Amino acid sequence: MEYQNTLAFAQQLDKEDPLASFRNQYYLPQKDGKTLVYLCGNSLGLQPKNARAAIEQELNDWARLGVDGHFDGKNPWMYYHHFLNEKAAHVVGANPSEVVIMNNLTTNLHLMMVSFYRPTPARYKILMEASAFPSDQYAMETQARFHGFNPDDAIIELIPREGEYTLRTEDILAKINAHKNDLALVMMGGVNYYTGQAFDMKTITEAAHAVGAIAGFDLAHAAGNLHLQLHNWDVDFAVWCSYKYLNSGPGGTSGVFVNERHGNNQDLPRFAGWWGHDEKERFKMKKGFKPMQGAAGWQLSNAQIFPMAIHKASLDLFEEAGMANLRKKSELLTGYLEYLLMDVIHGESTIPDPSTGRDAIHRISRDATNKLVKMDLPFTIITPSNPAERGCQLSIIVKKDGRKLFDYLQSQGILPDWREPDVIRMSPVPMYNSFEDVYKIGESMKQYFSIDNM
Ligand SMILES: *Cc1c(COP(=O)(O)O)cnc(C)c1O
Fold it and tell me: Is the CB of 417 under 6 A from ligand 1?
């Protein structure tokens, strides 16, 4: 697509956008009567307007029926997770039996670790991204300790090469191979929360399996963002939250994927609860845990109806829009943001990095002696430029006083998010952000850097 930096062009893209009407299905935050440009869908997705009715339905059934709501409600609570499976499975590219919605993300990560991190004295290492989301770091660290290992020894961290911000797949694969004899688990994000880099989950999974390791992914920043194919990629397990790209409310429920190769394996150790027990016998209150087939067999507790009601309503909109369509728009939308950001620093001479052939145009430059140097531009987009290596989000590092730019954008009615120590993350999401939203970011950035902030 040949982009143009004009309002008319942005509005034309909105006019041609087959998903444009979904914006009206969400509450867009306002300030002083003006609709904000919301860019924090990667942190807390916006409220779908159908959420309220979904909760009211359950409140009404509870008021009307009391305990009988479990069987006689419009959506009987006893079977509530069944109503979410299929649509959640479509979002992550799984068979419905491979998915269950329950608990919260970090809880589910630990539950999966119980089943899939089964270290032996010889094979006990976990490979993960350095600077992964803190909850994931703490989970891996304490899991290693729980099994009697020293986390400094058991956890291998993937660190970008000198002068680079993101990981190269070849380096990830090399690390997996280097540890072919002691690697138990590859546990990475699907999309890194900080850099916005999307990992090649299919290739990483293959490499993990080739050395006899398990491949698990935390999809907090990938679910509802990338067009995932967990089943076809043969991922072993995955977890995600529902409140980021999946718009299901603060502290919302979480999703789990267990590959069907494992789902019916009753020998896998697991921490069980009554909701994972064979549904037909659940209320017989008998001794002896007999897991349900598939991911449902990992459930612990009876369903949290209210967060799940919101999630159900939100998933209806994903089902209607379709992940493939959302992803198509997302590439266009984030591509447009990248184009506009590059336009702000247009004229600076940047070149592809010839040593790698990677399209690092916004990372590498040459100094007066023609030596490659880290770019000395007002800001750097650290998210990969290749659409296959990113989702919605672009992360930028501002050379000087990033917090000041962040505050300026906020004063202009734009809501990006700030991550310590120095990153501004912008996530235009295809469900409710418009091309005009993205155009406004470009205008504000141009304004800011035309003043005295270079
Ligand atoms: C958002 C996020 C979390 C948050 O975990 P909760 O248990 O939902 O609080 C964990 N891991 C990653 C990678 C995240 O992006």
Answer: no
Q: Is 128 in the pocket of ligand 1 (CB under 6 A)?
A: no
Q: E strands within 205-363?
A: 214-218, 237-241, 254-258
Among 105, 111, 192, 423, the mutation site with the greatest number of ligand 1 atoms within 8 A of its Cβ is: 105
Q: Domains of the chain: which residue ranges?
A: 7-35+323-449, 53-321
Tokens of 385: 């430029």
Q: Is 189 in the pocket of ligand 1 (CB under 6 A)?
A: yes
The Cα–Cα gap between 233 and 249 comes to 29
Q: Is the dihedral of CA 107, 156, 162, 170 positive or negative?
A: negative
Question: How do residues 31-63 score in pLDDT, each as one tens digit?
Answer: 999 999 999 999 999 999 999 999 999 999 999
Spacing, Cα 118 to ligand 1 middle (Å)? 23
Residue 194 contacts residue 395 (beta carbons within 8 Å)? yes
- Cα–Cα distance measured from residue 246 to residue 90, given in angstroms and rounded to the nearest whole number: 13
Percent of the chain past pLDDT 90, that is, above it, reads 84
CATH topology for the 53-321 domain: Aspartate Aminotransferase; domain 2 (3.40.640)
For residue 247, the model assigns a pLDDT of 98
Ligand 1 atom 8: residue of nearest CA: 105
Ligand 1: distance of its center to the CA of 139 in Å?
A: 11
Q: Per residue in 313-332, pLDDT tens?
A: 999 999 999 999 999 999 99
Q: What is the pLDDT of residues 188-216, one digit of tens each?
A: 999 999 999 999 999 999 999 999 999 99
Is domain 7-35+323-449 annotated with CATH 2.70.70.10? no
Report pLDDT for 52.
98
Same topology for domains 7-35+323-449 and 53-321, yes or no? no
Q: How far apart (Å, rounded) are the C-alpha atoms in residues 189 and 50?
A: 30
Nearest CA to ligand 1 atom 14: 220
Pick the atom of ligand 1 nearest to 106's CA: 7
Q: Does 242 contact ligand 1 (Cβ within 6 A)?
A: no
Residue-wise pLDDT tens digits, 389-439: 999 999 999 888 899 999 999 999 999 999 888 899 999 999 999 999 999
User: What's this model's pTM, rounded to 2 decimal places?
Assistant: 0.93
Amino acid identity, position 325: N
